[in-house]
Amino acid sequence: MSTQQVDVRAAESDPAESVDSFRARARAWIQENLERADPAAHIGVLRDEGADEDELAHVEHERTLQRKLFDAGFAGLCIPPEYGGQGLTTAHQRALNDEMTGYEYPARLQSPTFAPCVGVLMDFGTEEQKLEHIPAILRGEEIWMQFLSEPSGGSDVAAALTTAVRDGDEWVLNGSKIWTTGAWWSDWALCLARTNWDVPKHRGLTVFMLPLKAPGIEVHRIEMLSGSREFCQEYLTDVRVPDTDRVGQVDDGWKVGTRWMFHERMASNSPYTTLPGGGSRGGSRVTELFEVARDAGRLDDPISRDLLGEAKMLDVVKAALGERIGHGIASRSISDQSASIARLMSGLAATRMTSIGYEFTQASGAAWDSADGAVVERGTDYLMQQVSCIAGGTTEMARNAISERVLGMPREHTHDVGLAFRDVPKNRSAT
Ligand SMILES: Cc1cc2nc3c(=O)[nH]c(=O)nc-3n(C[C@H](O)[C@H](O)[C@H](O)COP(=O)(O)OP(=O)(O)OC[C@H]3O[C@@H](n4cnc5c(N)ncnc54)[C@H](O)[C@@H]3O)c2cc1C
Protein backbone atom coordinates (compact mmCIF):
# COMPACT_ATOMS: atom_id res chain seq x y z
CA MET A 1 0.00 0.00 0.00
CA SER A 2 1.43 3.38 -0.88
CA THR A 3 1.13 6.04 1.74
CA GLN A 4 1.93 9.65 1.28
CA GLN A 5 2.52 11.77 4.34
CA VAL A 6 0.94 15.15 3.68
CA ASP A 7 2.47 17.84 5.81
CA VAL A 8 0.21 20.42 7.43
CA ARG A 9 2.95 22.87 6.52
CA ALA A 10 1.61 22.67 2.96
CA ALA A 11 -1.30 24.66 4.32
CA GLU A 12 1.10 27.58 4.82
CA SER A 13 1.72 28.00 1.08
CA ASP A 14 0.61 31.21 -0.66
CA PRO A 15 -3.14 31.54 -0.57
CA ALA A 16 -5.01 33.08 -3.45
CA GLU A 17 -7.14 35.28 -1.19
CA SER A 18 -5.79 37.56 1.54
CA VAL A 19 -6.84 36.79 5.10
CA ASP A 20 -8.52 40.20 5.41
CA SER A 21 -10.61 39.69 2.31
CA PHE A 22 -11.47 36.16 3.41
CA ARG A 23 -12.45 37.39 6.86
CA ALA A 24 -14.80 40.01 5.45
CA ARG A 25 -16.38 37.46 3.13
CA ALA A 26 -16.76 34.93 5.98
CA ARG A 27 -18.28 37.53 8.31
CA ALA A 28 -20.92 38.55 5.77
CA TRP A 29 -21.81 34.94 5.00
CA ILE A 30 -21.99 33.91 8.66
CA GLN A 31 -24.25 36.84 9.59
CA GLU A 32 -26.52 36.01 6.68
CA ASN A 33 -26.62 32.23 7.00
CA LEU A 34 -25.96 31.00 10.54
CA GLU A 35 -28.08 31.30 13.68
CA ARG A 36 -26.65 32.75 16.87
CA ALA A 37 -25.71 29.91 19.24
CA ASP A 38 -27.98 29.37 22.21
CA PRO A 39 -25.54 29.93 25.10
CA ALA A 40 -27.55 27.58 27.33
CA ALA A 41 -27.57 24.71 24.84
CA HIS A 42 -25.11 21.83 24.95
CA ILE A 43 -22.46 23.57 27.00
CA GLY A 44 -20.59 21.20 29.24
CA VAL A 45 -19.35 17.68 28.77
CA LEU A 46 -21.14 14.39 29.07
CA ARG A 47 -24.37 15.97 30.21
CA ASP A 48 -27.62 14.14 29.91
CA GLU A 49 -28.50 15.02 26.28
CA GLY A 50 -32.15 14.08 26.76
CA ALA A 51 -34.03 11.69 24.52
CA ASP A 52 -32.13 9.81 21.82
CA GLU A 53 -34.38 11.37 19.14
CA ASP A 54 -33.25 14.82 20.29
CA GLU A 55 -29.58 13.84 20.14
CA LEU A 56 -30.04 12.33 16.67
CA ALA A 57 -31.80 15.52 15.56
CA HIS A 58 -28.80 17.57 16.81
CA VAL A 59 -26.45 15.31 14.88
CA GLU A 60 -28.52 15.69 11.71
CA HIS A 61 -28.64 19.45 12.17
CA GLU A 62 -24.86 19.56 12.51
CA ARG A 63 -24.41 17.44 9.37
CA THR A 64 -26.61 20.00 7.57
CA LEU A 65 -24.54 22.87 8.99
CA GLN A 66 -21.37 21.16 7.78
CA ARG A 67 -22.90 20.78 4.31
CA LYS A 68 -23.86 24.44 4.34
CA LEU A 69 -20.28 25.42 5.19
CA PHE A 70 -19.01 23.11 2.46
CA ASP A 71 -21.35 24.50 -0.21
CA ALA A 72 -20.31 28.05 0.68
CA GLY A 73 -16.58 27.21 0.50
CA PHE A 74 -15.96 27.43 4.26
CA ALA A 75 -15.18 23.76 4.95
CA GLY A 76 -11.74 22.19 4.92
CA LEU A 77 -9.89 25.49 4.58
CA CYS A 78 -6.48 23.83 5.04
CA ILE A 79 -7.31 20.77 2.95
CA PRO A 80 -6.14 20.73 -0.67
CA PRO A 81 -8.82 21.31 -3.35
CA GLU A 82 -8.32 17.81 -4.83
CA TYR A 83 -9.88 16.42 -1.64
CA GLY A 84 -12.70 18.96 -1.58
CA GLY A 85 -10.98 21.58 0.58
CA GLN A 86 -10.02 25.20 -0.05
CA GLY A 87 -6.21 24.98 0.00
CA LEU A 88 -5.93 28.04 2.26
CA THR A 89 -3.77 28.62 5.35
CA THR A 90 -4.07 28.27 9.11
CA ALA A 91 -4.40 32.08 9.27
CA HIS A 92 -7.60 31.78 7.19
CA GLN A 93 -8.82 29.04 9.55
CA ARG A 94 -8.14 31.24 12.58
CA ALA A 95 -10.03 34.09 10.94
CA LEU A 96 -13.01 31.78 10.35
CA ASN A 97 -12.84 30.61 13.98
CA ASP A 98 -12.91 34.23 15.18
CA GLU A 99 -15.81 35.17 12.95
CA MET A 100 -17.85 32.14 14.00
CA THR A 101 -17.63 32.96 17.70
CA GLY A 102 -21.14 33.13 19.11
CA TYR A 103 -22.70 31.31 16.13
CA GLU A 104 -23.92 27.74 15.81
CA TYR A 105 -21.40 25.36 14.27
CA PRO A 106 -21.06 21.60 13.73
CA ALA A 107 -19.50 20.92 17.15
CA ARG A 108 -19.94 17.14 17.18
CA LEU A 109 -18.04 16.84 13.89
CA GLN A 110 -14.88 18.61 14.98
CA SER A 111 -13.36 16.09 17.34
CA PRO A 112 -12.59 13.35 16.58
CA THR A 113 -13.70 13.55 12.91
CA PHE A 114 -11.54 16.49 11.80
CA ALA A 115 -8.89 16.10 14.47
CA PRO A 116 -7.44 13.58 14.78
CA CYS A 117 -9.13 11.41 12.08
CA VAL A 118 -8.81 13.73 9.06
CA GLY A 119 -5.25 14.51 10.15
CA VAL A 120 -4.40 10.79 10.15
CA LEU A 121 -6.06 10.23 6.76
CA MET A 122 -4.21 13.19 5.28
CA ASP A 123 -0.89 11.91 6.61
CA PHE A 124 -1.21 8.19 5.94
CA GLY A 125 -4.26 7.54 3.75
CA THR A 126 -3.75 6.25 0.23
CA GLU A 127 -4.91 8.46 -2.62
CA GLU A 128 -8.03 6.26 -2.99
CA GLN A 129 -8.81 6.47 0.73
CA LYS A 130 -8.44 10.24 0.74
CA LEU A 131 -10.55 10.72 -2.37
CA GLU A 132 -13.27 8.49 -0.97
CA HIS A 133 -13.47 9.83 2.57
CA ILE A 134 -12.18 13.40 2.90
CA PRO A 135 -14.77 15.02 0.58
CA ALA A 136 -17.53 12.95 2.24
CA ILE A 137 -16.38 14.17 5.65
CA LEU A 138 -16.29 17.76 4.43
CA ARG A 139 -19.88 17.41 3.18
CA GLY A 140 -21.00 16.16 6.60
CA GLU A 141 -21.78 12.69 5.24
CA GLU A 142 -19.25 10.80 7.36
CA ILE A 143 -18.68 11.23 11.08
CA TRP A 144 -15.58 9.43 12.34
CA MET A 145 -14.65 8.01 15.73
CA GLN A 146 -11.41 6.79 17.22
CA PHE A 147 -11.06 3.26 18.57
CA LEU A 148 -7.97 3.55 20.76
CA SER A 149 -8.79 2.91 24.43
CA GLU A 150 -9.55 -0.63 25.56
CA PRO A 151 -11.11 -1.99 28.74
CA SER A 152 -7.60 -3.05 29.85
CA GLY A 153 -6.39 0.59 29.75
CA GLY A 154 -6.08 3.68 27.61
CA SER A 155 -2.85 5.42 28.61
CA ASP A 156 -0.62 2.62 27.38
CA VAL A 157 -2.12 2.80 23.89
CA ALA A 158 0.59 0.57 22.43
CA ALA A 159 -0.60 -2.29 24.66
CA ALA A 160 -3.73 -2.75 22.51
CA LEU A 161 -5.16 -6.25 22.70
CA THR A 162 -7.68 -5.97 19.87
CA THR A 163 -6.28 -8.35 17.29
CA ALA A 164 -6.31 -8.37 13.49
CA VAL A 165 -5.41 -11.57 11.64
CA ARG A 166 -4.81 -11.64 7.89
CA ASP A 167 -7.10 -13.83 5.78
CA GLY A 168 -6.32 -13.41 2.05
CA ASP A 169 -7.24 -9.87 1.00
CA GLU A 170 -9.00 -9.26 4.28
CA TRP A 171 -8.26 -8.88 7.97
CA VAL A 172 -10.38 -10.38 10.76
CA LEU A 173 -10.64 -8.21 13.87
CA ASN A 174 -11.61 -9.32 17.38
CA GLY A 175 -11.54 -7.39 20.64
CA SER A 176 -13.15 -4.48 22.42
CA LYS A 177 -12.74 -0.71 22.44
CA ILE A 178 -14.21 1.67 25.01
CA TRP A 179 -14.95 5.32 25.91
CA THR A 180 -15.81 6.13 22.32
CA THR A 181 -17.84 9.31 22.46
CA GLY A 182 -20.89 9.20 20.21
CA ALA A 183 -20.11 5.94 18.39
CA TRP A 184 -23.83 5.09 18.29
CA TRP A 185 -24.55 7.90 15.82
CA SER A 186 -21.29 7.80 13.89
CA ASP A 187 -20.29 6.23 10.58
CA TRP A 188 -16.61 5.23 10.57
CA ALA A 189 -13.79 4.61 13.02
CA LEU A 190 -10.02 4.47 12.94
CA CYS A 191 -9.01 1.39 14.89
CA LEU A 192 -5.61 0.46 16.31
CA ALA A 193 -5.16 -3.32 16.39
CA ARG A 194 -2.43 -5.84 17.12
CA THR A 195 -1.20 -7.70 14.05
CA ASN A 196 1.93 -9.25 15.55
CA TRP A 197 2.28 -10.68 19.09
CA ASP A 198 5.85 -11.90 18.60
CA VAL A 199 7.57 -8.51 18.61
CA PRO A 200 7.74 -5.73 21.24
CA LYS A 201 4.42 -3.96 21.67
CA HIS A 202 5.13 -0.87 19.57
CA ARG A 203 6.23 -2.96 16.59
CA GLY A 204 3.17 -5.19 16.13
CA LEU A 205 0.34 -2.71 15.57
CA THR A 206 -1.65 -1.74 12.47
CA VAL A 207 -4.38 0.85 11.88
CA PHE A 208 -7.62 0.07 10.03
CA MET A 209 -10.70 2.03 9.07
CA LEU A 210 -14.01 0.41 9.98
CA PRO A 211 -17.56 1.30 8.96
CA LEU A 212 -19.44 1.20 12.26
CA LYS A 213 -22.35 -0.66 10.72
CA ALA A 214 -20.08 -3.53 9.59
CA PRO A 215 -21.26 -7.02 10.59
CA GLY A 216 -19.63 -8.09 13.86
CA ILE A 217 -19.45 -4.62 15.46
CA GLU A 218 -21.75 -4.29 18.46
CA VAL A 219 -21.98 -0.81 19.94
CA HIS A 220 -23.09 -0.74 23.60
CA ARG A 221 -23.87 2.53 25.29
CA ILE A 222 -22.53 3.28 28.77
CA GLU A 223 -24.82 5.17 31.10
CA MET A 224 -23.05 7.66 33.35
CA LEU A 225 -24.29 8.87 36.74
CA SER A 226 -25.16 12.20 35.05
CA GLY A 227 -27.60 10.36 32.78
CA SER A 228 -25.37 10.86 29.73
CA ARG A 229 -25.24 7.88 27.35
CA GLU A 230 -22.72 9.43 24.99
CA PHE A 231 -19.88 7.00 25.83
CA CYS A 232 -19.86 3.64 24.08
CA GLN A 233 -18.07 0.33 24.29
CA GLU A 234 -17.70 -1.68 21.09
CA TYR A 235 -17.33 -5.42 20.80
CA LEU A 236 -15.62 -6.62 17.62
CA THR A 237 -16.34 -10.24 16.70
CA ASP A 238 -14.82 -11.55 13.48
CA VAL A 239 -15.13 -8.15 11.81
CA ARG A 240 -13.83 -8.49 8.24
CA VAL A 241 -11.93 -5.52 6.86
CA PRO A 242 -10.51 -5.40 3.33
CA ASP A 243 -6.78 -4.77 3.14
CA THR A 244 -7.60 -1.63 1.14
CA ASP A 245 -9.00 -0.19 4.40
CA ARG A 246 -5.67 -0.52 6.16
CA VAL A 247 -4.09 2.85 7.01
CA GLY A 248 -0.30 2.77 6.88
CA GLN A 249 1.95 -0.25 6.74
CA VAL A 250 1.38 -3.61 8.41
CA ASP A 251 2.96 -3.71 11.92
CA ASP A 252 3.92 -0.03 11.54
CA GLY A 253 0.78 1.25 13.26
CA TRP A 254 2.77 2.97 15.98
CA LYS A 255 4.08 5.41 13.37
CA VAL A 256 0.46 6.17 12.48
CA GLY A 257 -0.54 6.10 16.16
CA THR A 258 2.13 8.63 17.15
CA ARG A 259 0.89 11.05 14.52
CA TRP A 260 -2.71 10.24 15.50
CA MET A 261 -1.98 11.30 19.08
CA PHE A 262 -0.21 14.40 17.81
CA HIS A 263 -3.34 15.42 15.90
CA GLU A 264 -5.45 14.65 18.95
CA ARG A 265 -3.30 16.77 21.27
CA MET A 266 -3.38 19.63 18.77
CA ALA A 267 -7.13 19.30 18.19
CA SER A 268 -7.99 22.74 19.56
CA ASN A 269 -5.30 24.32 17.36
CA SER A 270 -5.62 21.95 14.44
CA PRO A 271 -5.66 23.38 10.90
CA TYR A 272 -8.55 20.99 10.23
CA THR A 273 -10.99 21.97 13.00
CA THR A 274 -13.42 24.87 12.99
CA LEU A 275 -13.69 25.95 16.61
CA PRO A 276 -15.26 29.32 17.37
CA GLY A 277 -13.35 31.51 19.83
CA GLY A 278 -13.06 30.04 23.30
CA GLY A 279 -13.47 26.54 21.91
CA SER A 280 -16.74 26.01 23.72
CA ARG A 281 -19.91 25.07 21.94
CA GLY A 282 -20.93 28.36 20.44
CA GLY A 283 -19.35 31.02 22.62
CA SER A 284 -16.27 32.10 24.50
CA ARG A 285 -15.69 30.35 27.82
CA VAL A 286 -15.13 33.70 29.52
CA THR A 287 -18.44 35.00 28.19
CA GLU A 288 -20.13 31.94 29.67
CA LEU A 289 -18.47 32.55 33.03
CA PHE A 290 -19.51 36.19 32.92
CA GLU A 291 -23.09 35.02 32.44
CA VAL A 292 -22.80 32.61 35.37
CA ALA A 293 -21.50 35.38 37.64
CA ARG A 294 -24.28 37.69 36.46
CA ASP A 295 -27.06 35.13 36.94
CA ALA A 296 -25.65 34.19 40.36
CA GLY A 297 -25.83 37.90 41.35
CA ARG A 298 -22.05 38.01 41.90
CA LEU A 299 -20.94 40.49 39.25
CA ASP A 300 -20.17 43.37 41.64
CA ASP A 301 -18.31 41.19 44.08
CA PRO A 302 -14.54 41.96 43.95
CA ILE A 303 -13.69 38.26 44.34
CA SER A 304 -15.82 37.46 41.30
CA ARG A 305 -14.02 40.12 39.32
CA ASP A 306 -10.69 38.57 40.28
CA LEU A 307 -11.97 35.17 39.18
CA LEU A 308 -13.19 36.56 35.87
CA GLY A 309 -9.79 38.17 35.39
CA GLU A 310 -8.13 34.83 36.06
CA ALA A 311 -10.41 33.11 33.55
CA LYS A 312 -9.63 35.74 30.92
CA MET A 313 -5.93 35.37 31.58
CA LEU A 314 -6.17 31.57 31.18
CA ASP A 315 -8.10 31.97 27.94
CA VAL A 316 -5.60 34.43 26.48
CA VAL A 317 -2.53 32.47 27.56
CA LYS A 318 -3.97 29.17 26.32
CA ALA A 319 -4.78 30.67 22.92
CA ALA A 320 -1.36 32.34 22.62
CA LEU A 321 0.47 29.20 23.72
CA GLY A 322 -1.52 27.04 21.30
CA GLU A 323 -0.78 29.42 18.45
CA ARG A 324 2.92 29.60 19.33
CA ILE A 325 3.23 25.83 19.52
CA GLY A 326 1.30 25.47 16.25
CA HIS A 327 3.68 27.90 14.52
CA GLY A 328 6.73 26.29 16.14
CA ILE A 329 5.74 22.85 14.93
CA ALA A 330 4.81 24.14 11.47
CA SER A 331 8.18 25.90 11.09
CA ARG A 332 9.99 22.89 12.61
CA SER A 333 11.58 25.09 15.28
CA ILE A 334 10.14 22.77 17.96
CA SER A 335 9.34 19.06 17.85
CA ASP A 336 5.89 17.57 17.21
CA GLN A 337 6.07 16.27 20.79
CA SER A 338 5.60 19.86 21.99
CA ALA A 339 1.90 19.33 21.21
CA SER A 340 1.79 17.80 24.71
CA ILE A 341 2.45 21.25 26.17
CA ALA A 342 -0.70 22.62 24.50
CA ARG A 343 -2.62 19.52 25.59
CA LEU A 344 -1.52 19.97 29.22
CA MET A 345 -2.43 23.66 29.21
CA SER A 346 -5.86 23.06 27.68
CA GLY A 347 -6.65 20.36 30.28
CA LEU A 348 -5.55 22.49 33.23
CA ALA A 349 -7.24 25.66 31.94
CA ALA A 350 -10.55 23.88 31.27
CA THR A 351 -10.55 22.29 34.72
CA ARG A 352 -9.84 25.58 36.45
CA MET A 353 -12.49 27.43 34.40
CA THR A 354 -15.09 24.84 35.36
CA SER A 355 -14.11 25.26 38.97
CA ILE A 356 -14.38 29.07 38.69
CA GLY A 357 -17.91 28.69 37.28
CA TYR A 358 -18.85 26.62 40.30
CA GLU A 359 -17.30 29.14 42.72
CA PHE A 360 -19.65 31.85 41.43
CA THR A 361 -22.74 29.78 42.04
CA GLN A 362 -22.33 28.91 45.73
CA ALA A 363 -25.36 26.91 46.98
CA SER A 364 -27.27 27.14 43.70
CA GLY A 365 -24.36 25.33 42.06
CA ALA A 366 -25.34 22.24 44.01
CA ALA A 367 -29.14 22.58 43.76
CA TRP A 368 -30.48 24.81 41.01
CA ASP A 369 -33.79 25.80 39.56
CA SER A 370 -34.58 25.99 35.85
CA ALA A 371 -35.02 29.76 36.30
CA ASP A 372 -31.39 30.14 37.41
CA GLY A 373 -30.18 30.91 33.88
CA ALA A 374 -26.49 30.26 33.30
CA VAL A 375 -26.14 28.81 36.80
CA VAL A 376 -28.01 25.67 35.75
CA GLU A 377 -25.86 22.50 35.77
CA ARG A 378 -22.66 24.16 36.98
CA GLY A 379 -22.63 21.56 39.76
CA THR A 380 -22.74 18.74 37.22
CA ASP A 381 -19.92 20.35 35.27
CA TYR A 382 -17.92 20.68 38.47
CA LEU A 383 -18.27 16.98 39.15
CA MET A 384 -17.15 16.26 35.59
CA GLN A 385 -14.30 18.78 35.53
CA GLN A 386 -11.55 16.16 35.52
CA VAL A 387 -12.73 14.99 32.10
CA SER A 388 -10.61 17.66 30.40
CA CYS A 389 -7.51 16.12 31.99
CA ILE A 390 -8.43 12.60 30.80
CA ALA A 391 -9.97 12.82 27.32
CA GLY A 392 -7.43 12.81 24.52
CA GLY A 393 -4.78 11.20 26.73
CA THR A 394 -4.36 12.19 30.36
CA THR A 395 -2.43 15.22 31.55
CA GLU A 396 -0.17 12.82 33.49
CA MET A 397 0.80 11.19 30.19
CA ALA A 398 1.27 14.67 28.66
CA ARG A 399 3.66 15.51 31.51
CA ASN A 400 5.56 12.28 30.80
CA ALA A 401 5.84 13.19 27.11
CA ILE A 402 7.03 16.72 27.93
CA SER A 403 9.67 15.55 30.39
CA GLU A 404 10.96 12.65 28.31
CA ARG A 405 10.52 13.78 24.73
CA VAL A 406 10.64 17.58 24.91
CA LEU A 407 13.01 18.18 27.84
CA GLY A 408 15.06 15.02 27.27
CA MET A 409 14.79 13.79 30.87
CA PRO A 410 15.41 10.09 31.62
CA ARG A 411 12.66 7.73 30.45
CA GLU A 412 10.27 6.17 32.91
CA HIS A 413 11.17 2.56 33.78
CA THR A 414 9.09 0.02 31.86
CA HIS A 415 9.04 -3.74 32.27
CA ASP A 416 8.32 -4.61 28.64
CA VAL A 417 11.26 -3.18 26.66
CA GLY A 418 12.50 -5.68 24.08
CA LEU A 419 9.98 -8.36 25.13
CA ALA A 420 7.64 -9.96 22.60
CA PHE A 421 4.21 -8.57 23.49
CA ARG A 422 2.95 -12.14 23.90
CA ASP A 423 5.35 -12.57 26.86
CA VAL A 424 4.63 -9.26 28.59
CA PRO A 425 2.92 -9.92 31.95
CA LYS A 426 -0.71 -8.75 31.80
CA ASN A 427 -3.40 -8.53 34.41
CA ARG A 428 -6.31 -10.96 34.29
CA SER A 429 -8.71 -8.53 32.62
CA ALA A 430 -6.29 -8.32 29.70
CA THR A 431 -6.06 -12.02 28.97
C1 LIG B 1 -14.69 12.71 27.53
C2 LIG B 1 -13.84 11.55 27.11
C3 LIG B 1 -13.87 11.17 25.79
C4 LIG B 1 -13.09 10.07 25.36
N1 LIG B 1 -13.19 9.69 24.06
C5 LIG B 1 -12.48 8.63 23.64
C6 LIG B 1 -12.60 8.17 22.30
O1 LIG B 1 -13.36 8.72 21.50
N2 LIG B 1 -11.87 7.10 21.90
C7 LIG B 1 -11.02 6.46 22.76
O2 LIG B 1 -10.37 5.51 22.33
N3 LIG B 1 -10.89 6.84 24.06
C8 LIG B 1 -11.61 7.91 24.51
N4 LIG B 1 -11.51 8.32 25.81
C9 LIG B 1 -10.69 7.54 26.74
C10 LIG B 1 -9.40 8.23 27.14
O3 LIG B 1 -8.52 8.31 26.04
C11 LIG B 1 -8.81 7.40 28.28
O4 LIG B 1 -9.70 7.48 29.38
C12 LIG B 1 -7.45 7.90 28.69
O5 LIG B 1 -6.50 7.70 27.67
C13 LIG B 1 -6.95 7.20 29.97
O6 LIG B 1 -7.10 5.82 29.85
P1 LIG B 1 -7.83 4.98 31.01
O7 LIG B 1 -9.12 5.66 31.32
O8 LIG B 1 -7.89 3.57 30.57
O9 LIG B 1 -6.91 5.14 32.27
P2 LIG B 1 -5.57 4.33 32.59
O10 LIG B 1 -4.73 4.26 31.38
O11 LIG B 1 -5.95 3.08 33.27
O12 LIG B 1 -4.88 5.31 33.62
C14 LIG B 1 -5.39 5.49 34.96
C15 LIG B 1 -4.62 6.62 35.64
O13 LIG B 1 -3.22 6.28 35.72
C16 LIG B 1 -2.43 7.30 35.13
N5 LIG B 1 -1.29 6.70 34.43
C17 LIG B 1 -1.32 5.62 33.62
N6 LIG B 1 -0.09 5.37 33.15
C18 LIG B 1 0.73 6.32 33.64
C19 LIG B 1 2.12 6.59 33.51
N7 LIG B 1 2.92 5.85 32.73
N8 LIG B 1 2.62 7.68 34.16
C20 LIG B 1 1.82 8.48 34.93
N9 LIG B 1 0.49 8.24 35.11
C21 LIG B 1 -0.04 7.18 34.47
C22 LIG B 1 -3.35 7.98 34.12
O14 LIG B 1 -2.93 9.31 33.87
C23 LIG B 1 -4.68 7.94 34.87
O15 LIG B 1 -4.76 9.00 35.80
C24 LIG B 1 -12.26 9.39 26.28
C25 LIG B 1 -12.22 9.80 27.62
C26 LIG B 1 -13.01 10.86 28.03
C27 LIG B 1 -12.95 11.27 29.48
UniProtKB/TrEMBL annotation:
It holds the Pfam family Acyl-CoA_dh_N. Residues 148-230 form the Acyl-CoA oxidase/dehydrogenase middle domain. The lineage of its organism: Bacteria, Bacillati, Actinomycetota, Actinomycetes, Mycobacteriales. It comes from Williamsia limnetica. Gene3D superfamilies: Acyl-CoA dehydrogenase/oxidase, N-terminal domain, Butyryl-CoA Dehydrogenase, subunit A, domain 2, Butyryl-CoA Dehydrogenase, subunit A, domain 3. GO terms for cellular component: plasma membrane. This is Alkylation response protein AidB-like acyl-CoA dehydrogenase. One of its GO terms (molecular function) is oxidoreductase activity, acting on the CH-CH group of donors. Residues 55-141 form the Acyl-CoA dehydrogenase/oxidase N-terminal domain. Keywords: Oxidoreductase.
